[in-house]
Amino acid sequence: MSSDDGWRGSVVLVLGSATGGTGEHVASLARGLAASGSRVLVCGPAATDERFGFSAADGVDFAPVEIPASPGPQDSGAIRVLRRAIAGRDADVIHAHGLRAAFVVSLARTGVPTVTTWHNVVLAKGLRGQAGALVERIVARNADLTLGASEDLVARAVAVGARNARLGPVASPQTTPPKRTRQAVRAEFRLKGDTPLILSVGRLHPQKHYDLLVDAAARWRDLNPAPVVVVAGSGPSYMPLAQRASREHAPFHLLGHRTDVPDLLLGADVAVVTSDWEARQLFAQEALRAGVPLVTTAVGGLPGLVGDAALLIPPRDLDALDNAVRELLADPQMRADYAARGPVQAASWPDERAVVDDVRAGYAEVTT
Fold first, then answer.
1. Are residues 196 and 261 in the same domain?
2. Domain containing 363 — which CATH number?
3. How is 74-107 classified by DSSP, letter by letter?
4. How many domains does the chain have?
5. Cα–Cα distance for residue pair 103/108, rounded to 1 Å
6. CA–CA separation, 238 vs 185, rounded Å?
C-alpha cells in the first residue's frame, strides 16, 4: 500500500504526557495521516502541543486533554474533556498512545473502534505495580487492535488479554544537521587535546540508571586523559545524580534539557545508554544515525534496533559498562568500525511513509 491508496477517514490520536519518542511518533503520524487525506485530531496535554507542534501541522487539529501521569479520580475530568473533544467529529477510529492515554480512552467508552500502541513497559513494583498490571489488562482487553513498539510489549499485551496484537513499526526521526563545529562543541566543555567526550541523552529518571554512568565516570579518572561525561535531559533524578557525582568526584555533568543534540553528537566520542528498559530509544537512534560509537544495554527492543552496530551490555552491570567504554576508547579502529556500522543500520529502519501506511492498514482492519 502506498500513501496515495488505502484507508482515509477521521482519526483521533490520544497521548498523555510525553517528552521524547512517543510524542515524536504521534507528531510523525499526525503529519503523515493528514498528508494522506485523513482528518486528524490530536488530544493530549497542552504541554505536548507546545513541544511537538501538533496544532501547527497542516490539516491537524489539537484539543487539550490533561491526562495525568498516574491513574486517579482526576481521570474523570480527562474522560469528560475527551468525550467533548471527540463529539461531532464522526471519528472512525481512536488511536491511543501509551497505557495512560489508552486507559482514559477505555474508560470513556466512546463506541469508536480503538487502536492502542504500547510504548512502555510497567516497571513499578508493589502496589503501583499491581495498579499498572490492572491498567494493562483493561487496556489490552478493550482495544480492537494492539500495536507494540517492541516484540516484548506485544508478548506482554497478549499475555494480559489482547485479542489482536502485533508489532507496530515506529519511524526513525530525521535529525537536523549540527550547527556548530566539533571544535566549538568541545570548547563548550573546556576539553583539552584528545580528552574523550562521552554523551547520553534522556529523561533523568531511575529507569535510565544514570547512576551507573556516574560510577563509571568516577572509575575512568584513572585513564589518561580521563573522559568527561555529559548527560542532556531533565527529570526527577537531577538532584540525586548531581549529589552522587559530587560525592564521587566524578567528571560527570548534567546539562539540563538541550535542543542541540546533533551538535553534542558531533562533539562526542562515545554514546551510552544505561536504561533498564527501552522500546526504540530515541537517543540510540540519533547516535547510530550520526555515526557515534554506541554502548547500550541489551533490553526491550534495543537489540533488534541496533543489530550489530553497537556494543551491547547487560543492564545494571557497572563492570560491563566500564569495560565496554574502555575498550572503545583504547581502540581507534574499533571506534571507526562502529561509527561506520551506525548509519548502515539506521538505513534499515522504517521511514515515516512506511509507518503511516502500516497504521492505515490497521485502521482499515478495525473499521471494516
1. yes
2. 3.40.50.2000
3. THHHHHHHHHHHHTTS--SEEEEESHHHHHHHHH
4. 2
5. 9
6. 23
Q: Given a cut of 70, is residue 2 above it in pLDDT?
A: no
Q: Place 88 in a pLDDT band, splitting at 50, 70 and 90.
A: confident
pLDDT tens digits for 166-216?
Answer: 999 888 877 899 999 999 999 999 999 999 999 999 999 999 999 999 999
Residue 337 in grid coordinates: 568500525
> Residue 2: inside a domain, yes or no?
no
Q: In what order do the strands lie in the sheet with 10-15?
A: 60-64, 39-44, 10-15, 93-97, 114-118, 145-148, 165-167
Q: What is the mean pLDDT of the segment spanning 277-305?
A: 95
Instruction: Please give the distance of CA 75 from its chain centroid, rounded to a whole number.
Output: 24
Exposure of 17 by Cβ count < 10 A (0-12 exposed, 13-18 middle, 19+ buried)? middle
Domain that holds residue 333: 182-346
Are 78 and 29 found together in one domain? yes
**pLDDT for residue 364:** 97
Looking at the fold, whether 230 and 254 belong to one and the same domain comes out as yes
Contacts of 26 (CB under 8 A, 6+ apart): 13, 15, 18, 42, 44, 48, 52, 54, 97
Structural contact between residues 115 and 97, judged by C-beta atoms closer than 8 angstroms: no
Residues 109 and 48 in one domain: yes
Place of cell 539506521: 346
d(CA 346, CA 305): 9
- Length, in residues, of the chain: 368
Average confidence (pLDDT) over 309-335: 98
